[in-house]
């Protein structure tokens, strides 16, 4: 039998896929940033009063853009590219209390993309300066609750992509590992006397970091529990207690990076074992005491984390228990010289931090907790 003649070539024009070339290069740049980064330190300061309870501080202030948001920004941009939402020339837009925007501005510049940060006018001067130095533009709104709609509007006007950390933080981070913050912490704990800490303590902004830690604890079947810290002017704590995600409040949190006026989609209460809402004066007092103790200035959210850790340590001591506690240094105090480190600012806010600092120092020196010092959780 003679073979049938071949089909003629179909007239099927195929696209050049220049966008894919761009995405390939962009992903290479993001992987490069990760490859050139070392793991962050897990500090182990020794306080005599905490004898028998080892405490660890995961220092996220040493990333190239100064906070734990360096990890998140890289993940969010990677997520956008890999989902086909970010391409050559896409304007990146974010709603932020500042740290995320600083890190995203850095990555936008690395990729040659325009960047717009939508923030409240009260955002620290240092963060605004950093965003602008990375070539980003700042768009200000008056209230924390206005950032979401304003960011979406800027994205619509520019034909850009709203990165939306508050929605995507929990899913842009690989929950099973890939060097996420939880995997890094537990790997660094592996050879310690108590490799499974009793508690990891973390405050919530997007809720993404606590979601990653809580999921990872379950995935690795660890005995560690997760305590999430909330602050004044925020709804996370009430939402957790009442099981109500629809709660809102109008004021903005005074502690930059944490506390939100709505229950962010990335906050996952089901993986949280305990929550406490702490007074801002206590958080700022703890921030200053910790900064003195470790010879480096930390930010306000780190103060909230550290106060939560001290409360749990006090409880463990009262029960005669030993073990380990872990929390995070989220960013450096250099961003807050005009606010939390300014005595004038603290006084103008009506915050009385001196007696709280004294009580906390006494606890760290002697282990004696002063229940009347105004450091404890706020009542429901
Ligand atoms: C974002 C942020 C947090 C909270 O982390 P989330 O993962 O968003 O909950 C804490 N401190 C600072 C300084 C932050 O920027």
UniProtKB/TrEMBL annotation:
- Enumerate the InterPro entries for this protein: Cds1 (IPR047586), Cys_Synth/Cystath_Beta-Synth (IPR050214), TrpB-like_PALP (IPR001926), TrpB-like_PALP_sf (IPR036052)
Keyword terms: Cytoplasm, Lyase, Pyridoxal phosphate
Subcellular location per UniProt equals: Cytoplasm
What are the protein's GO molecular function terms?
A: lyase activity; pyridoxal phosphate binding
Every Tryptophan synthase beta chain-like PALP domain range: 50-331
Classification via Pfam families: PALP
Q: Does the keyword Aminoacyl-tRNA synthetase apply?
A: no
Q: Which reaction does it catalyse?
A: L-cysteine + H2O = hydrogen sulfide + pyruvate + NH4(+) + H(+)
In short, the EC number is 4.4.1.1
Q: Coiled coil where?
A: none
GO BP terms, alphabetized: L-cysteine catabolic process to pyruvate
Main localization of the protein described in the UniProt heading = cytoplasm
User: Per its database record, what is this protein's job?
Assistant: A cysteine desulfhydrase that generates hydrogen sulfide, H(2)S. The H(2)S produced by this enzyme may modulate central metabolism.
In the UniProt record, which is one GO cellular component term? Answer: cytoplasm
Q: What is the name listed in the Swiss-Prot or TrEMBL entry for this protein?
A: L-cysteine desulfhydrase Cds1
What does the sequence similarity comment in the record state about its family?
Belongs to the cysteine synthase/cystathionine beta-synthase family. Cds1 subfamily.
Q: Which residues carry this modification: N6-(pyridoxal phosphate)lysine?
A: 69
């Amino acid at each position: 039998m003679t073979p049938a003649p071949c089909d003629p070539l179909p007239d099927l024009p195929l696209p050049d896929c220049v966008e894919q070339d761009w995405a390939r290069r962009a992903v290479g740049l993001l992987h490069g940033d990760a490859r050139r980064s070392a793991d962050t330190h897990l500090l182990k300061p020794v306080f005599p009063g905490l004898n028998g309870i080892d405490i660890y501080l995961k220092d996220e202030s040493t990333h190239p853009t100064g906070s734990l948001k360096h990890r998140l920004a890289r993940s969010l941009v990677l997520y956008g590219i890999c989902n086909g939402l970010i391409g050559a020339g896409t304007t990146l837009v974010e709603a932020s209390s500042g740290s995320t925007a600083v890190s995203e501005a850095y990555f936008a510049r690395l990729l040659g993309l325009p960047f717009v940060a939508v923030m409240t006018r009260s955002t620290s001067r240092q963060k605004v300066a950093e965003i602008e130095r990375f070539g980003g533009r700042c768009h200000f709104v008056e209230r924390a609750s206005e950032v979401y709609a304003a960011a979406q509007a800027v994205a619509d006007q520019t034909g850009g992509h709203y990165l939306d950390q508050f929605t995507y933080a929990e899913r842009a981070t690989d929950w099973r590992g890939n060097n996420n913050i939880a995997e890094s912490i537990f790997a660094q704990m592996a050879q310690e006397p108590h490799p499974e800490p009793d508690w990891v303590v973390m405050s919530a902004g997007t809720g993404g970091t606590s979601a990653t830690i809580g999921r990872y604890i379950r995935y690795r079947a660890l005995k560690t529990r997760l305590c999430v810290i909330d602050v004044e002017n925020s709804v996370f704590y009430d939402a957790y207690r009442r099981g109500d995600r629809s709660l809102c409040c109008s004021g903005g949190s005074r502690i930059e990076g944490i506390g939100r006026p709505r229950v962010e989609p990335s906050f996952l209460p089901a993986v949280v074992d305990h929550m406490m809402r702490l007074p801002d004066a206590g958080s700022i007092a703890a921030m200053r005491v910790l900064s003195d103790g470790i010879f480096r200035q930390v930010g306000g959210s780190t103060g909230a984390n550290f106060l939560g850790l001290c409360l749990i340590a006090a409880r463990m001591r009262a029960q005669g228990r030993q073990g380990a506690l872990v929390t995070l240094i989220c960013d450096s105090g250099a961003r807050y010289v005009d606010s939390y480190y300014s005595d004038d600012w603290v006084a103008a806010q009506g915050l009385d931090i001196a007696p709280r600092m004294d009580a906390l120092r006494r606890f760290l020196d002697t282990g004696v907790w002063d229940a009347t010092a105004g450091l404890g959780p706020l009542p429901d």
